[in-house]
Each structure stands twice: as structure tokens, then as C-alpha cells.
Amino acid sequence: MEWSDYIVMAAQHSKNNTQLWFRYLRKYIDKCGTLFSKQDVENLYHNDALTPFQRVSIRAAFEPDSQTRQHIISLNLKTNPSKLLLVREKYENADSFE
């Protein structure tokens, strides 16, 4: 399966799920770079199988300093357990109605 076929399949599979779409994209984006060329991204941008959100997000995902790219890269990082504990303690009572 070609990478572009995979992305089109992923786009169709995650049409209504943003987080799932970003998780598909993270397979092609890491700290060191991407597996896509600029022309590849443009070809995907004009593919009719992608929703307008997916088109915009795929273009932003391959811009070096975009927030979308930073978010996708963060999906590849391991979470520090001590930070999770701090967040949990901070918001532990956030759902209470008192």
C-alpha cells in the first residue's frame, strides 16, 4: 500500500474523529521530519476523499512551526507520570457541584 493510499483510507476511516485523524498523521510525522514532500502534501490537499478540515490540517501538519504539527509530535511522546499525577490532583474535584 502506498503512503498516499494509506492517508486516503485513514481520512475516510476517521472522517468524524479529529483525534483519530491526528493519530493516523503521527505515523508520518516525527521530530526529525516527515515522509512527505511538499508536492505530496499538495496532492493530498486536492484529493476529494478528504474533508475540508482534513485538507487544512494536513497542510498545517507539514508546516515546520505550526501548532497542529506540535500537537501531532506531542502524540508521539511518552507522558511523564509525575505530570499526570499533578494534573489529576489539580482537577480531582473539578466535577463537583459545590
Can you walk through the features of this model?
The chain is 59% helix and 4% strand. By secondary structure, the chain is mostly helical. The protein has one domain. A two-stranded antiparallel sheet has the order 1-2. β1 and β2 (33-34) form a beta hairpin. α2 (18-26) packs across α5 and α3 (38-45) runs antiparallel to α4. It is elongated. The mean pLDDT is 78.
Query: Which structural class fits the helix and strand makeup?
Result: mainly alpha
Mean pLDDT: 78
Number of domains: 1
Number of helices: 6
Q: Report how far the terminal alpha carbons are from each other.
A: 55 Å
Largest sheet: 2 strands, antiparallel
Brief summary of the model shown:
This protein is mainly α and 98 residues long. The protein is built from six helices and two strands. It has one domain.
SSE order and pairing:
Elements: H1 3-13, H2 18-26, E1 29-30, E2 33-34, H3 38-45, H4 52-61, H5 67-76, H6 81-90
Tags for this entry?
single chain, 98 residues, mainly alpha, two-stranded antiparallel ribbon
